[in-house]
Write a structure and sequence with these properties.
Elements (H helix, E strand, L loop, with lengths): L2 E8 L3 H12 L4 E5 L5 H6 L1 H18 L15 H25 L3 E4 L1 E6 L2 E5 L9 H14 L7 H4 L2 E2 L3 E10 L3 E3 L12 E2 L1 H6 L6 E5 L3 H12 L3 E6 L10 H13 L2 E5 L1 E8 L6 E7 L2 E7 L1 E4 L3 E3 L11 H4 L3 E2 L2 E2 L12 E3 L10 H15 L13 E3 L5 E5 L2 H6 L4 E7 L4 H5 L6 E7 L5 E7 L3 H13 L4 H5 L10 H7 L1
Parallel strand pairs: 1-2, 1-7, 2-3, 3-6, 7-20, 9-16, 10-11, 10-16, 11-12
Antiparallel strand pairs: 4-5, 5-7, 8-17, 13-14, 14-15, 18-19, 21-22, 22-25, 23-24, 24-25
Helix pairs in contact: 1-11, 3-4, 3-8
Length: 496
């Protein structure tokens, strides 16, 4: 006999577990299914481990400038084993926190792979079990596990639930929150030892002496910041004409200048052709074409940071009903409507598995909104206003549209800009070049977007998100008194 629930959530990342809590708050009996660790990619293989290591890298970088501010100490030494140990401790603490949250809310956690049988039933099989999957899906998962250097399944402690034999859950609603995995383009030689995705690099107990990064997006540039701050050689190869191609052009240009100052070798408009081992087998050669000229770079490690793709492994199998098999998909992503419902009534999907904005906080908002719709309510969450952050040094925060985007849309906009070199907190803390830009409607002065590249940008950008959600103007924000000396004073200067 199937266990009965009002909501079954497949995937225990931020979107999934927050949606589960939202369901309980709306009076639902909720089950949460996860085949790896609680917290999903963000906690275990993305945001949190990356930022934990970044924190160490930033402190190390600051220590290098000690003599210039009157501090002289023994040359610091990076102990990567201890860095990894601290990272693991942070992750374990957070996983325990989520497990406690699930217990407090009486959410049933099932450890295994969730397969949707029909709109009312989800089968949960032990994560090791692959039988019954479509051949292409099984091959896909095997390739992912190889790329990540991991096998499926985790301990009970990691997953926060109890391992069990196969079980079928009966439910009124299903929410898919299975996230994404690193995208691995078909580059010859990408399976060679020393070639890793972000998952593999985060698990590495030591550091490459020189790292080639294929991809100059957010993931690539964050790792470039880590490695360069710790004094290691970095080469970035980006196929498009600039790094951070989805962000404000001025931010990309400034970050490139800062990275080059730290001896990061950046190549844009460069297409990778192949990866080879050196003759002695001790290193790697990355061959690429830049401006029609064949080039090569050498290193002992290569990071493939070519974005992420929706993960649907095991979700739909030969056991699934025809209705589920026919669920609308687009280039591997699940298609949903404005309420996050799929083409199958009663089945919803949120987060990276749907494509779009691949951010944990976006998935969380979508999950809460989807559950509200299940409960027959309208939840007013501005899912169209989503801040984006890049945890380089200096940090980057963006929300809304840039001046270039406003121009491309034919919008009349005014741009205000403040250079942080005049900010007292920036000067006394030896922050590198930075700025705050605000884009507003020319007539109403209503805030349309903001781009920040400075210390604490990832914390301060939410102020502009609040302003946009409440349709505030430049003049409205200028009424606020900011404390002195702070980085946030730059916001006031930018909107005046």
């Amino acid at each position: 006999m199937a266990d009965k629930f009002d909501l079954v959530v497949i995937g225990a990342g931020p979107g999934g577990y927050e949606a589960a809590v939202e369901g309980v708050q709306k009076g639902m009996k909720v089950a949460l299914v996860e085949n790896r660790e609680l917290g999903g990619t963000c906690l275990n293989r993305g945001c949190i481990p990356t930022k934990t290591i970044l924190h160490t890298a930033e402190l190390y970088h600051e220590l290098q400038s000690g003599p210039s501010i009157g501090l002289t100490a023994r040359e610091p030494v990076v102990d990567m084993e201890m860095v990894q140990k601290r990272k693991d401790e942070v992750l374990e603490q957070l996983r325990k926190g989520i497990a406690s949250l699930m217990k407090t809310n009486k959410i049933s956690v099932y450890c295994g792979t969730g397969t949707i049988l029909d709109r009312e039933h989800v089968k949960v099989a032990p994560a090791e079990e692959k039988s019954g999957e479509k051949a292409e899906e099984k091959a896909e998962e095997n390739a992912e596990e190889k790329a990540e250097g991991k096998a499926g399944g985790n301990s009970e402690e990691q997953s926060g639930g109890q391992k069990q034999d196969q079980v079928v859950l009966e439910t009124s609603h299903i929410l898919i929150a299975t996230g994404s995995v690193p995208a691995c383009p078909p580059i010859p030689g990408s399976s060679l030892p020393g070639v890793v995705t972000s998952d593999g690099l985060l698990d590495k107990k030591d550091m490459f002496e020189h790292l080639i990064i294929i991809g100059g997006g957010v993931i690539g540039m964050e790792f470039a910041s880590v490695y360069s701050s710790l004094g290691h050689g970095v080469t970035v190869i980006e196929a498009l004409d600039r790094i951070l191609p989805t962000m404000d052009k001025e931010i990309a240009q400034n970050l490139k200048m800062i990275m080059k100052k730290r001896n990061v070798d950046i190549h844009t408009g460069a297409k990778v052709e192949e990866i080879l081992q050196t003759e002695d087998g001790a290193g790697l050669i990355c061959r690429y074409v830049e401006k029609d000229k064949p080039c090569e770079a050498r290193a002992d490690g290569i990071l493939i940071a070519a974005g992420r793709r929706a993960y649907t492994g095991g979700l739909i199998t030969d056991e699934s009903s025809q209705e589920v098999k026919d669920m609308a998909m687009e280039r591997g992503r699940i298609v949903t409507d404005e309420t996050y419902e799929t083409s199958v009534p009663g089945i919803y999907a949120i987060g990276d598995v749907t494509g779009g904005i691949q951010l944990a906080h976006a998935a969380t908002a979508q999950g809460r909104s989807a559950v509200a719709h299940m409960a027959g309510e309208d939840m007013v969450i501005r899912t169209d206003i989503v801040p984006s952050c890049v945890y380089t040094n200096p940090e980057i925060g963006c929300v809304g549209i840039s001046a270039d985007e406003a121009k491309a849309r034919g919008m009349e906009a005014v741009t205000k800009k403040y250079i942080m070199s005049a900010n007292g907190k920036s000067i006394l803390s030896q922050q590198e070049r930075g700025f705050i830009k605000v884009v507003a409607d020319s007539d109403s002065h209503r805030i349309l977007g903001a781009q920040m590249m400075c210390a604490r940008a990832t914390d301060m950008i939410s102020q502009f998100a609040v302003a946009m959600a409440n349709e505030l103007t430049l003049e409205d924000m200028a009424k606020v008194i900011f404390p002195h000396p702070t980085f946030s004073e730059g916001i006031l200067e930018a909107v005046r």
